[in-house]
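dumping this here so i dont lose it
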């Protein structure tokens, strides 16, 4: 006799599904409507087909913003992942100082995005900011509001300060899950510190590293608040990333059709990359579970 299935648990999930449907699916359908239609107001729409998508695909403005976005995400991953691993390897493993370091590392993650931008906007000012004033006293010409290189450096350092803790905490959790027997065997074999990292710690951190890379890629590719507060996308368009360009197009210029097509393409790119990362993570888990 087959086992009786109890589907009453779905009633507990139903409120969540309704909430997600109201807060996510309905706005998404509105964006889809604008992406395939044109309007002149009064809630009157005219079918535009793929016109807005074609315009965005051939838009030099979009290509420039995409290039800046890819460069920013690549720089962030290249800095934060190795730095997070290094910090995790050097954190205390147990005791009071381990707890203290975990609390300190968590503090930047608790600060809201707009507050992070405001902190660094003031921090980098030449008149009242500690960073800007110190660099000026040292004779270094630093001005993130006028120099594109200074603006890029400020935004990247700000993101590294804000999010390296996440990578470090994930790597620390991965290191803590490694059985001590591996380290004892390495000591018996007189393995070097690099050999321990290469053959024990790094393979055991593969899962959490993929999660860290996925989260940091998604966050960096969708970054908006921090650079907008600090530089406003400037000077010029030097720090105008995809999200900032999208907001300027939708809110500033009120080009709802192109902005909707732009946002859907933006969403699909992030979804595609996230799916690739998820597939890789699943394959790794299956390989480790296999006998």
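and the seq i came up w/
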């Amino acid at each position: 006799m087959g086992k009786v299935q109890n589907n009453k648990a779905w009633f507990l999930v139903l409120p969540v599904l309704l909430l997600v449907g109201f807060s996510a699916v309905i706005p998404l359908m509105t964006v889809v409507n604008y992406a395939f239609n044109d309007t002149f107001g009064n809630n009157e729409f005219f079918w535009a087909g793929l016109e807005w998508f074609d315009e965005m695909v051939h838009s030099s403005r979009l290509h420039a913003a995409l290039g800046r976005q890819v460069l920013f995400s690549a720089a962030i991953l290249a800095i934060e992942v190795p730095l997070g691993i290094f910090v995790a390897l050097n954190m205390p493993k147990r005791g009071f100082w381990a707890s203290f370091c975990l609390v300190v590392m968590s503090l930047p993650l608790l600060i809201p995005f707009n507050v992070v931008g405001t902190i660094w906007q003031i921090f980098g000012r030449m008149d009242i900011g500690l960073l800007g004033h110190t660099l000026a006293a040292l004779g270094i010409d630093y001005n993130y509001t006028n120099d594109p290189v200074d603006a890029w450096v400020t935004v990247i350092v700000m993101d590294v300060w804000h999010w390296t803790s996440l990578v470090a905490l994930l790597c620390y959790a991965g290191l803590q899950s490694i059985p001590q027997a591996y380290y004892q065997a390495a000591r018996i074999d007189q393995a070097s510190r690099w050999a321990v990292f290469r053959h024990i710690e790094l393979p055991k951190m593969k899962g959490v590293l993929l999660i860290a890379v996925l989260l940091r890629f998604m966050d960096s590719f969708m970054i908006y608040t921090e650079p907008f507060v600090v530089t406003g996308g400037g000077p010029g368009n030097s720090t105008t990333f995809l999200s900032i360009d999208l907001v300027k197009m939708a809110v500033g210029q009120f080009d709802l059709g192109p902005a909707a097509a732009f946002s859907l393409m933006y969403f699909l790119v992030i979804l595609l990359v996230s799916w690739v990362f998820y597939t890789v993570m699943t394959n790794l888990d299956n390989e480790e579970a296999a006998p």
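The mean pLDDT is 87.
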